[in-house]
Every structure is written in C-alpha cells, then in structure tokens.
Amino acid sequence: MKKNTKLNAEASGLSGELLRLFVVEAINRAGKLTEAEGSTIIEAHHLQQILPQLLLDFS
Asked: Model pTM?
C-alpha cells in the first residue's frame, strides 16, 4: 500500500456498515446456538463455534 493512499468518505462508510453487519450476524448466530443449548448468555465458546462458517459466508 502506498503511503499516499486514502480512503474516501463513501468507502469508509461502507466499510463501517460491513463491519456492523458482520457483528450483528455473529451475535444472531451465536444467540441461536446459545438458545439451542438451553442457555441465555452468549459466551466466547459460542462465538468460536460460529466463527468459521461466518468468515466463509462473508468472504
């Protein structure tokens, strides 16, 4: 990446929106897994279980 490479406002906004959607989707998937296990609290291992497929879906 060149030192003078810049990100315009639209690209920055779209990157932020993509990150927001990624986090919302991660929470939704982890929440479904948590409920399926009969729990009400999302823990780190729930996120670890959904992360591989989530990363594939967002690539």
From this structure: 0.83
